[in-house]
Specification:
The complex is a heterodimer. By secondary structure, chain A is α/β, with parallel strands linked by helices. Chain A has seven helices and 19 strands. Chain A is 18% helix and 45% strand. The termini of chain B are far apart. Classes of the chains: A alpha/beta, B alpha/beta.
Chain lengths: 364, 277
């Protein structure tokens, strides 16, 4: 059973750190504060249902429960969010709908701990570009579950930026399921200062399903963060690509656990994985554990990890054009973390990302 | 007038002495060329002047308008007016060419000042056209996936934008086809002025067909062993370097002795041999 309780909303104004992000680049948006929708773009998007979780639960209970039975994750934190959510959204793109404008969702923690559940359902033959931004305004424990269902021949680009401060803890589980010819792309920018444990699971459940999971992460000070990406091939001819880019500085520790898992009989599947990392200080730590779990002969698979200091030759090259060492390093790090930056299609969100990177490397 | 002086320069890499007393003075407005066979220290000289961290200077000095260059960091040398067009420039993913060059130009201005965006774009576009590069260059990542020729042209483009006092072009002609060589040559020649000192490092005389040099030096064994005018080049082109070797009494022109190649007979296992089984 899925439960949902709503906390009272004390102040319905749009927080100061969200206001500047709603600029002219953003046409479709929604702002959720402590589980209440406090702002929304005027236009209704044809063929798209977006509702607060409690509304949706009364209107679309059958759909939500069917999906939940289909994809039940035994992890404690997942069950916790399911039982105790106080914030959440349901987005349902109905069959044959192509959404042209990117949908932006801003989720704000203000008074209460964040226990958040988002469900994104893309029916067959749909297309959605979804960007979410999470931020906390008070110290809190934050538990987030998001579930994406990508139907036959549907495309979902799921981009997420989260910025939780040092005084908070963060646990995120993202689940994605992809059907025949469907494509799910995760662009994940982890620029929080919080102690973080983040898991992204993708299940390719029908032939020709495809998924890209791209994560960039940066840790600093005493932060510890763990990012797991699991792509499971549960059908033949499926393709999964994992790319991780990490930067760790000060005395922080960052761990990537990428897993490509091809089950028996899932012939002609492709599982590829690439990890890259830059360690900026002597006491910082960055681990990448690229795993391939393969129970079938007829597959294509690769994995790799390269972790080191900032490339000396790159540094020398930039400095030989007059950039100070500090500037050269900043440029290299920003460039290194750019693979996800390109997915953010608003300049305001891009600068949120760039400023976070800047802030997290300022002691360099 | 600007002046670059290299005096009795000795440098080594990983304990190997490469430069063994280089003396060279270049005045603003002059173009010098250094030629010489492989492995004689030409590129090392270029890297040492720019300050590559791999090399250690053990003796001698480099002065730019009287200021000690060896005391400066790489970026300070650049801002003082030195430029090195590199043989194998690094690729920097995620950093666009235009962002990079804009940052480099801003670094030359006073604190808080920035290049004007509009005039920057105009100037950059013009340089892209002059070098006959693709329009998408500003948005492409710095040298990433560039062909050898594109990289070299990009070096010249940067030189155009940064307007150095002294530019060293290290084998800027290698990897260029005839057309590209012509474009690069024309652009470099177009930049010549009384304010620019040029040092060309090359294997072939063909670069000097497009960029004329006032003085030509030949490097062997980590030293400039012969200097003269363009006539030297013609003779090298037809006769090779042997006559110079004879003239200065050098048998092996290289800085480091040739390593004996280890050979193994096909059919025997190299591991086995190594283990002496």
């Amino acid at each position: 059973m899925i439960h949902y309780t709503k906390n009272p909303l004390i102040d319905d104004s749009i927080p100061e750190n969200i206001q500047p992000l709603i600029d002219e680049d953003i046409t479709q948006f929604l702002i959720l504060k402590d589980g209440h929708i406090i702002g929304q773009s005027v236009d209704h998007i044809e063929g798209v249902y977006i509702e607060n979780f409690d509304e949706a639960l009364s209107q679309k209970r059958d759909l939500i429960e069917t999906l939940d039975n289909e994809h039940n994750n035994p992890a404690d934190s997942y069950q916790y969010v399911k039982d105790n959510a106080t914030s959440g959204l349901v987005i349902h793109v109905t069959k044959n709908t192509v959404v042209d404008d990117t949908l932006h969702v801003f989720v704000v923690q203000e008074e209460h701990d964040l226990v958040h559940n988002t469900i994104v359902v893309c029916d067959d033959n749909t297309e959605l570009n979804y960007i979410e931004y999470y931020v906390n305004n008070n110290p809190a424990s934050n538990n987030i579950v998001t579930q994406s269902f990508v139907g036959e021949n549907a495309r979902l680009s799921y981009t997420t930026v989260n910025q939780f401060d040092q005084k908070s803890v963060l646990n995120i589980i993202r689940n994605g399921r992809v059907k025949r010819y469907g494509e799910l792309t995760y662009n994940i920018a982890e620029v929080s200062d919080a102690l973080s444990d983040v898991t992204t699971n993708v299940q390719l459940i029908e032939p020709y399903a495809k998924s890209y999971v791209k994560t960039v992460a940066i840790t600093n000070q005493q932060q510890e963060a763990r990012f797991e990406q699991l792509v499971e091939h549960l059908a033949h001819h499926t393709e999964g690509y994992i790319e991780n880019y990490g930067v760790s500085s000060d005395t922080s520790a960052l761990v990537f656990e990428g897993i490509g898992k091809i089950h028996k009989h899932m012939k002609q599947s492709v599982a590829r994985q690439q990890n890259r990392g830059i360690v900026l200080s002597r006491k910082a730590r960055l681990d990448a554990n690229p795993l391939l779990l393969i129970d079938e002969y007829d597959v294509i698979a690769s994995h790799g990890a390269a972790i080191g200091k900032i490339d000396e030759e790159q540094l020398y090259y930039l400095m030989s054009r007059g950039l100070s060492k500090r500037n050269a390093e900043r440029l290299i790090i920003n460039g290194f973390l750019s693979p996800v930056l390109d997915a953010l299609d608003s300049d305001a969100l891009k600068s949120v990302f760039v400023n976070s990177v800047e802030r997290k490397t300022q002691d360099l | 007038m600007a002046k670059l002086e290299i005096k009795n320069l000795h440098a080594e890499v990983e304990g190997n002495k490469i430069l063994r007393g280089v003396n060279l003075t270049i005045n603003g407005g002059e173009t010098h060329a250094i030629m010489g066979p492989n492995g004689t220290g030409k590129s090392t000289l270029a890297s040492v002047v720019m300050g590559h961290p791999k090399y250690t200077v053990t003796e001698g000095e480099i002065l730019l308008d009287g200021d000690n260059v060896l005391d400066m960091d790489v970026d300070e040398r650049a801002r003082a007016g030195l430029f090195l067009g590199m043989q194998a420039p690094a690729e920097v993913p995620g950093v666009t060419n235009s962002d990079f060059i804009k940052t480099a130009m801003n670094a030359r201005l006073e604190e808080g000042k920035k290049v004007k965006l509009f005039s920057f774009i105009k100037e950059y576009d013009k340089a892209v056209q002059d070098l006959k590069m693709n329009d998408d260059l500003p948005h492409r990542y710095l040298n990433e996936g560039f062909s050898g020729g594109e990289k070299k042209r990009n070096e010249i483009l940067q030189m155009k934008m940064l307007k150095p006092k002294f530019a060293i072009l290290d084998e800027i002609d290698s990897g260029l086809d005839v057309d590209a060589l012509k474009i690069v040559g024309e652009n470099v020649t177009g930049m010549k002025s009384d304010d620019l000192g040029l040092l060309l490092i090359t294997h072939y005389q063909r670069l000097l067909d497009y960029i004329s040099a006032d003085r030509v030096h030949v490097m062997m064994k980590g030293r400039l062993v012969k200097s003269g005018g363009m006539d030297i080049i013609e003779r090298i082109d037809s006769e090779g370097y042997d006559w110079i070797k004879q003239e200065v009494g050098i048998e092996d022109e290289r800085v480091l002795p040739k390593e004996d190649e280890e050979r193994t007979v096909l059919g025997t296992c190299a591991t086995k041999e190594a283990l002496d089984l």
